[in-house]
Amino acid sequence: MQPIYITYLNCFDIEAAALSDAEILAAIEESLAMQGRRETEIEPRVHLEPRAGVEGHFNVLRGWIGGEIDAAGVKVVGDFVDNYKQGLPSEFGILNLFDPRTGTPRAILDASGITDMRTGAVTAIGAKYLARKDSRVLGHIGARGTAYWNVRLLDSLFDFEVLRVHSRRPESRNAFAERLRRDLNKEVIVTEDWQSCIEGADIVVEASRLSEPTPMLKTEWIKPGALVVPYGTMSAVELSLTDIMAKLVVDDWGQCKGGKFGSLRAHVEAGKLSEQTLHAELGQIVAGLKPGRESETETNLFWHRGLSLSDIALGHAFLKKAESIGAGHRLRYA
């Protein structure tokens, strides 16, 4: 047997590869189009809750992308809400890529940053197809790692005039706003409550960190014609939210319709979000198989739970970029 080597990219290699915002968005948009054309395979994520009394769990995501990428991948990401008390990020992830013809391992990547970037990119691509083109006000709930990339990549597409952010802890939301001011060179409004952040916004993103389902986001605050993107682990929206929507869109119905977690879990269980009420998966819209926004008056909702396909596509893009600049580590496997 010939020697087998795998490529390892740690967090410093990912940082060195430094994909641009446009490169991140392009990789994710193409992977969504491939999903829409059924050039991929995806299995619903599974969860592992290892210890009673610990506020956290592991997500395991699995999938395959064809085309030029032609890779199978498995990502394991820990989601532990109280990590900030130890000075740690709430999420750590590892992405493993394999040859789908032989099962041979190809690469191991630090996926903590990749998770944040691909989540923000899916939010932004969803808004590209479902929000008003003249959206100028963003209201964002939550300040974790994915929140930064939500705002950064959304702003790269919409160039907002008003950016409003809120999260539960003042130190968290203030630090988040300061980072955005520095990197986007824009004023960012920090609000003291959910209502003043959300009310009147053209695009509303809910990425909260609730310990149990609590209807913090009120349906009456949503501006007609807005896009709402809820993706917190625990539901923060009222059951009536789906009633005002012209289109309900998800990233993958297979994983949205089942499982313990998710911002619209109660809506699925109540039958408000079903195969009958679902407009499309985002990939079908990106691929041109279903329409996105069709009028300025539509109020739309996009729920994404996170796609293994996005991790694989962005991981592949980082591998190519890292190779071009000589970053990464070659490890002997067998």
From TrEMBL:
InterPro entries, per the entry: NAD(P)-bd_dom_sf, ODC_Mu_crystall, ODC_N
UniProt organism field: Tianweitania populi
Protein name from the UniProt record: Ornithine cyclodeaminase
Superkingdom of this protein's organism: Bacteria
GO CC field: cytoplasm
Family according to the record: Belongs to the ornithine cyclodeaminase/mu-crystallin family.
PANTHER family: KETIMINE REDUCTASE MU-CRYSTALLIN
Originating gene: ocd
